[in-house]
Amino acid sequence: MVRQVKQAFFPVALVLFAALGPFILEPFDLVNLSAFSAMAIAALGLAFVWGTLGILNLGHCTFFGLGAYAYAIAVSNLGDSTLAALIGIALAVAFSLVLGYFLFFSRLGDVYLGVITLCVTLIFYSFMTSTADPSFHIGPVPLGGFNGITAVPSLNMPGDPQAFLSTEATFSICLLSLAGAYVLLSLLRSSDAGRIMTAIRESELRSELLGYDIRFYKLVGFAVSAAMAGLGGALYTAVMGYVSPNVFDLSQASQFVLWVIAGGLGAFVGPVVASFGFQLLSSQLGANQVFNTELIFGATIILFVMLAPQGLQPMLLGLSSLKFPHRFGILRRKEKPA
Amino acid sequence: MDNLVILCFAVINSIALLALISLGLAVIFGMMRVINFAHGEFIMLGGYATVIANHCGLNLWLSMLVVAPMFVALIGAVAERLIVRRLYGHLVTTMLATWGLSLFLIGAVTAIFGNTTMGVSAPLGNIPIGAYSIGAYQLFLIGITALLVVSALLALHWTKYGLIARAAMQNSEMAATLGINCDRVYAATFIIGAAISGLAGALLAPISGVLPHMGAAYVARAFVTVISGGGALITGFLSAATILGPVEALLSYFATPVLGQASLLLLAVIILRLFPTGVSSLWIGGR
Amino acid sequence: MSKVPILAARGLVKRFGGVAAVDGVDLVVDAGEIRCLIGPNGAGKSTLFKCLTHQHQPTSGHVLFEGRDLQGLATHRIARLGIAIKNQIPSIYANLDVRENIRLAGLRRWLGKRQLNRVVELTLDEIGFDERLASQPAATLSHAHRQWCELGMLLASSPRIALLDEPTAGMTREEMLKTVDVIKRLNASATVIVVEHDLEFIARLAQRVTVLHRGKVLVEDTMDKIEANEIVRDIYLGRKKEAAHAEG
């Protein structure tokens, strides 16, 4: 009972914030926090697929970017933002199924998996930067090459493209979506399917010997994480009003991974908190050339990986209760060569 | 006819380029099973070393062939000592740490030189072929790549270091009982790999210019080439380059460079679907 | 009425390079049996085990489960036929507690929640784990307890046949005796094949014993007759004499 109350604390806090935020914060902060939440939703997807299933997806931003572009294109063509967001999720999921089929049915090792997924996102980056020519367009929307798609309509009332939602309403939707994503993934993780996924992370061989089709569970988990990333991407584009190829670049890819490492592999609250923290930090750094985000985030990744491989959340929790199951950490897992 | 010559040249050039940008990575991966995510930045640093040395008045060839590899070897030695050595055996962790290093190096170079392109002009002029011309420097690149690969093969199979290295690679515990210091072998390998990457960056600098983010343009292709090559140290990545290079060159020529790159990745994914441990599993078994 | 054997191997061969580790093995195991495979080191026991469970693809020959060829079936499909496998190296979920380990094994049977819990508690009882042990992460267990935890997983998955590779390796005599009990419980509902070389363990357990030598079946009989068999004694005891010579 105590555990359930504890688990419910975080989403309830998010919901309260979604309700109260518009009354206490400036519009500028609301927009920023909406964007942070959208990113955090995507980060939750990675926290799930990496922390629960042990799939090292370094190219998680592929799905984020696909959701972002799909939303931008669909909302400009169709008008209705709800449908566009759904299309964003669907595209991300569809691509994850195709990619996942090749990755998991080839039984690639962690290292190969990480490399391939990262390469995929880099290819998307190259492709999107090469679409400056006006001949690259979908409906009336030019892909825009390096500049991406600008003036993307924001969220509107479902079914009524003219009724745009206020900054406050968008803020509430983003935070509620984050709370929803958190609850959904938590439920999934503690369900039987989620336990099997944890088991697969622990030992693929044992899971197969017990009769579980690990490729299937990995594919499902991968698709779920892609759906989260797609939703995050769609919301992010709706909030910011533009999308550029930078959603696919190396530094974007590293952000998600950094947040999950810093927040703690296997944890959910930690990565969300870390994503807010680091996004706040990078918006403070802004365009500072000397203390640029890459320098600082790169150093942070190195420090976390070397000194606190379990991340912050399990480390803090581990101090209070020594029985925390993720204490052993899968990041430091010794393994056979890929 | 001229067309055909140009096309053949493009294919060979593409294979050579893939080999050049992935050799350093292949050496490190083949020996240590570690994917060095900072590989692209080693290339970038090699380019910067060349450009800066040249701007300081040093002869271009000297900057390229001596200064750049030595500088990057030094960086590699530091990185090995501070990061990679502490994580031996933890492949995923090493990969993440080198990714952090990659970002850190991009950030550091941006902080020092700014986010702008610098360059040196390509030496050696052009060679006309009918209505077209190809850069003599490109021919030089192909030549030096071939030289590098052949000497790597020879070093691995004909020298004492190569023998020790292969022993450490095949079975580090066994090698240790024979009195080989595997840590030193790994350190040397990492440094040599870094030096080769630096040299690759130096050689590419006159063609592409240098930019803090330039590594990203090469890493995807280098990673794909090395992992679809698989376990065999030199022959693996070389055969992968030979398969992937022409496909990329032809598609880039007849369609767009991006399509060429995408096809490269797609082909690699298919290769890994067929041979999950790379094409070289065909002749060394699925190690 | 002709009975289809629960597991049969026909002309099984496994080569590594030029060496045939398993060299034409025919084996028939009837439902309900406890069968032991023994043989000196290098006889091909473990390789045969891996081939029987299709963790190694045999170079030639077939393994039939109730007349059905296992050729080409993925590992999880083989498991779903009701074949439970315990390899020589313990394979458990090290960071999950013992109860969760057992639960995951039972989960595949699609029982109701209540019934599953009952199976889990019953299994914990059968392998003799008290509440304290059951809630420990498997990684913190002693060697013998890990083996029992894995046997418990096999029990909970309610297999048709269980194949065990050296389940008593590294155990004390008391621990070995307890393992005999657990395996007998397993045998109450499943056929059991055990690869072992502890002769006392085999004597307590097996009805029929198959002796392997140099990748081939040397003889197959009851344990009494095997112990009396001259050739088998030569292989086992002769080897030991040689070894004693070499060391002495």
From TrEMBL, chain A:
Membrane topology: Multi-pass membrane protein
Pfam family, one: BPD_transp_2
Main location: membrane
Membrane-spanning residues: 7-25, 31-51, 58-76, 82-104, 111-128, 169-188, 216-236, 256-278, 290-312
Membrane as UniProt keyword: yes
One GO CC term on file: plasma membrane
UniProt GO molecular function: branched-chain amino acid transmembrane transporter activity
Subcellular location: Cell membrane
Keywords: Cell membrane, Membrane, Transmembrane, Transmembrane helix
Highest taxon, organism lineage: Bacteria
PANTHER family xrefs: HIGH-AFFINITY BRANCHED-CHAIN AMINO ACID TRANSPORT SYSTEM PERMEASE, SLR1201 PROTEIN
Listed name of the protein: Branched-chain amino acid ABC transporter permease
TrEMBL record, chain B:
One Pfam family this sequence matches: BPD_transp_2
The keyword Transport belongs to this UniProt entry's keyword annotation: yes
Keyword set includes Metal-binding: no
Domain of life: Bacteria
Location of the protein in the cell: Cell membrane
GO molecular function: transmembrane transporter activity
Keywords for this protein: Amino-acid transport, Cell membrane, Membrane, Transmembrane, Transmembrane helix, Transport
InterPro entries linked: ABC_transp_permease, BCAA_transport_permease
Topology with respect to the bilayer: Multi-pass membrane protein
GO cellular component entries: plasma membrane
Broad class of where this protein is predominantly found: membrane
Membrane-crossing segments per the record: 6-29, 36-54, 60-79, 91-114, 134-156, 185-207, 219-238, 250-275
Family, similarity comment: Belongs to the binding-protein-dependent transport system permease family. LivHM subfamily.
Protein name in the entry: Urea ABC transporter
Source species taxonomy: Bacteria, Pseudomonadati, Pseudomonadota, Alphaproteobacteria, Hyphomicrobiales
From TrEMBL, chain C:
SMART domains the record matches: AAA (SM00382)
Any one GO molecular function term: ATP binding
UniProt keyword ATP-binding present: yes
Keywords: ATP-binding, Nucleotide-binding, Transport
ABC transporter domain ranges (all copies): 7-239
GO cellular component term, pick one: plasma membrane
PANTHER family found in the cross-reference section: CONSERVED COMPONENT OF ABC TRANSPORTER FOR NATURAL AMINO ACIDS-RELATED, HIGH-AFFINITY BRANCHED-CHAIN AMINO ACID TRANSPORT ATP-BINDING PROTEIN
Job of this protein: Involved in beta-(1-->2)glucan export. Transmembrane domains (TMD) form a pore in the inner membrane and the ATP-binding domain (NBD) is responsible for energy generation.
Name the record gives this protein: ABC transporter domain-containing protein
Organism: Bradyrhizobium manausense
